[in-house]
Fold this protein.
Amino acid sequence: MATKAPTARERQREETRERILEAAVEAFAEMGFRGASTREIARRASTNQGLITYHFRSKEDLWRAAADGIFERLGAQLAERMEALDLTDPRERAREAIRQYVRFAAAHPELFRIMVDEGRVADDRMKWLVDTHLRPRFEVIAPGLMEVAGIDEALVPHAFYAMAGAASLMFAVAPECRRLTGLDPRSTQAVETHADYVARLLVP
Amino acid sequence: MATKAPTARERQREETRERILEAAVEAFAEMGFRGASTREIARRASTNQGLITYHFRSKEDLWRAAADGIFERLGAQLAERMEALDLTDPRERAREAIRQYVRFAAAHPELFRIMVDEGRVADDRMKWLVDTHLRPRFEVIAPGLMEVAGIDEALVPHAFYAMAGAASLMFAVAPECRRLTGLDPRSTQAVETHADYVARLLVP
DNA sequence: ACTGAAATTATTCGATTGACAAGCCAGTGG
DNA sequence: CCACTGGCTTGTCAATCGAATAATTTCAGT
């Protein structure tokens, strides 16, 4: 069955939803779940707070939708770019995967920020995040990590979190980094340097 | 001039202040500045909210006092333990310094959590944190980093944030790590493994 | 053109926030 | 032994929170 062409109404609806979602990702990443108010999110999306309850049932649901969006982007970008490259050497392929992850972390610091925000306490949001998004990714990464970094299975969690931290922290605290070191982590120069540094660190 | 022996009154005062401060560190690390309410902090310290305003002028001041405490502990522990070791080889000394930092990050995940919380937006708390605590430490670490990791000066910020992230993330999101990988990062086994892994990673 | 449903705005609610003021009361100094 | 200071408790304040509901506007289908 053919999906009907969306009416102006439906396009408007989707565009509004998307605008709210975008604002939510930013706000949650900036101020955490509790810190970001639905009113502030609405303000950033140039609407009003009532619309959020209308489009998403609750703040909790809005947060989940925002997290879905981030991981969807991560998966899409990584898959697309790795496919385009077609590297045969597993070590060089692993290095490039890490570089791509660093580039993503630089462009979307929200991912890391939300992970750190929600990973601290074993509440429902954390469990949902692990079960629906983190575990699937982890299980894909883990075997490659063992093979390429030349490490024992027991070291996999250590390598995983070391890589994630090394790759992301600088961009997650970009304003701090800028003030502390004078280096702006958002410049393409800095991103590429970091990508290469971390890739060589983990896959010598 | 001899400092007078503290009266029971003064001892009580100091003990209460300390209890509030301890609770504040935990709460801020767990829920961020905005997420942690002064009432919740008071509850954890087994007192009431009014006392917080009494001992510390405002929530902002309480936060600064909490940050002071964390960095004071970090400085004291690192200085003490490194002095005790007396390593001559600069590379082995650097490795041990990193191991010590990992151990501290494991015992006090608050440091990293608060850094990530406050480093995202260039507000007053971030600026204060950088100027009073981060920069002094960074300027001590930077020269050693260049010498030992064998890197160019331009790479120092990259190495610094890579190390901090690699060392701390696992412990900052300990509940998540436990659920995701099955490994409990708080076990001494895991801490030592991580310390050694990160130390060898950065100083090969 | 009309109508009814959908999208949006406006209003309201009870709960919670940080800050503050007033008073309580144990312990200290005289 | 007593006055009173200082740590502490309680109650209140406006502001803000998430959520629900009411009112209004917009537009697709007839």
